[in-house]
Amino acid sequence: QVQLVVSGGGMVQPGGSLRLSCAASGFTFSTTDMSWVRQGPGKGPEWVSSINAGGGATVYADSVKGRFTISRDNAKNTLYLQMNSLKLKDTALYYCARGGPTNYAEGSWGQGTQVTVSS
Questions:
Q1: Contact 70/36 with Cβ under 8 angstroms?
Q2: Which residue(s) pair with 48 in the sheet?
Q3: Which residues on neighbouring strands pair with residue 79, listed in sequence order?
Q4: CA atoms of 72 and 81, how far apart (whole Å)
Q5: Tens-digit pLDDT string for the chain (119 aa)
Q6: How would you classify the pairing of strands 10-12 and 113-117?
Q7: 3-state secondary structure string across the chain
């Protein structure tokens, strides 16, 4: 079955950095567009970023553009999210999802990892 195991979350001060990883299994990762989604406390899900199957095309939400970088290693079936210049508003549970910006909500997201930005 599809498994998406996210790791790398934690607590960081504003301006700090974290790198999230998503280990994928149960489907053909190398031919699947992938996305990061987050859900802040008391908020609905927010799409963060997507990358196409080959890794050559990326898109970002305006809220993270210039600070976050999505990437993937198809040989390792792993998706990444490098988060720099973190802000308080980036505090959320972060998930990885199969699909791009228009269809990421159609499948399961895995358990997510908590990112807390706090001074």
A1: yes
A2: none
A3: 22, 72
A4: 9
A5: 999 999 999 999 999 999 999 999 999 999 999 999 999 999 999 999 999 999 999 999 999 999 999 999 999 999 999 999 999 999 999 999 999 999 998 887 878 999 999 99
A6: parallel
A7: CCEEEEECCEEECCCCCEEEEEEEECCCHHHCCEEEEEECCCCCEEEEEEECCCCCCEEECCCCCCCEEEEEECCCCEEEEEECCCCHHHCEEEEEEECCCCCHHHCCCCCCEEEEECC
Largest CA distance in the chain: 40
CA distance 81 to 94: 10
Alpha-carbon torsion (85, 90, 91, 94), positive or negative: negative
- Tally the residues of the chain: 119
**Which residues 6+ apart lie within 8 Å of 99 measured at CB?**
32, 33, 34, 35, 50, 105, 106, 107
